[in-house]
Amino acid sequence: MSRLIDLILVHILVLASIADKLVRMDVSFKMTGVNTVYPQPVVNFKADGQIWKQWYENSHEDCKEFLFGCYECNPPCKQGPTKTVDFVGGARIQLFPHTGKLDFNDGVSTSLDFGLVAAFNRELTSIWASLGLAPSDTETAPYRSVPEQLLLKKVITESSYAIYFNAGANPSGELILGGDDPSKRAGALNYLKIVDAESHFVRVLGLAIGSDPKNTILIGMPAVLDTGASHIIMDEKFKRQVIAFLQTAGAKKVQIEEKGVNFVISCADAPNLPSMTFLMEGLKGEKIPLLINAASLVQKVRRNVCYMRIAFKDYEDAIFLGASAFLGRYLYFDLGNTKIGFANV
After folding, report:
1. Rounded to an integer, what distance in angstroms lies between the CA atom of residue 286 and that of residue 73?
2. Among 204, 221, 201, 231, which Cα is nearest to 322's?
């Protein structure tokens, strides 16, 4: 598995403000070329991980049609030594280093070092700009995460960060760099133990579907809280049991049809789906329930056709809990103290 899954990617789109040593950026959900079915969580950022305009347009694509936009150097930048970055699923990009100015609200500006994408091994329209949040290491060198750079420049006072997503038909939220904002959450945080300090995995002990304890699946696997992903990804070995329980453990039985990599349900039946509760490992080994309601499990794609926001792939190393697991949640990533907290928004 690629080490870079721990970057916890948040894609790029709206605006930032600074107050009380916290850097805030609004989060929204947009359709991107990365995923043609599910909208991705995106924030507005003007530097880190941007696409190099010269390379992109030389490849016969128009930056004006590209959701993430392109980074244009002034004066024109020259490609330097490149670094190859591999992602889960086989995507591979090449970056070269650049330094540019980053402007926040309230007249605060700072320079940042970042990478410009200069090569991609897939269809160009599926490339993305990404914001790395997790601490840097030897594999990500010479690049440092945005929180680390802001901390070094004393724009923020700590490298922890939070993100929350409001639930609803058009979910939105906020990325908060530099600490925790208790005013954005309801009550105390439930803390999960980071079981792999290098990859920042937590652990899933089990999965309860619906309210009947008999519909509980033992898991015992690491998990990635991947706030930049759009949906939940589990190993193929859990597919049969999970789909069977989703069809029978709700208010009424429903039919879920597998079509390729997607699972299709009538939107009229979606309210009858059961909840999914991932049983997470707490700081002392206790079970911490992370409940996902039925509304967060589906995505309407056209009239009365909904897709389940869950996929099954040959990923034996970890479960990926994407944004669909966190709608209505506030997450606080205190990686320096090897814990991640969550609460209701």
Report:
1. 51
2. 231
Q: How far, in Å, CA of 323 to CA of 153, rounded?
A: 30
Regions of the chain short of the pLDDT cut 50: 1-19, 46-57, 60, 105
Global confidence as pTM: 0.82
> pLDDT value at position 169?
76
Structure token pair of residue 235: 């190993």
Topology of the domain covering 185-344 = Cathepsin D, subunit A; domain 1 (2.40.70)
Same fold, 3-165 and 185-344: yes
Residue 282, SS3 per DSSP: strand
Indicate left, alpha or beta for 80 from its phi (over 0: left) and psi (-120 to 50: alpha).
Answer: beta
- Nearest of 169, 142, 150, 319 to residue 231 by alpha carbon: 319
What would the pLDDT profile of 5-54 be if each residue is shown by its tens digit? 333 333 333 334 444 578 888 887 776 666 667 777 776 654 434 444 44
Domain 3-165 matching CATH 1.10.10: the answer reads no
The two tokens of residue 172 are 């939105």
The one-letter code for the residue type at 197 is A
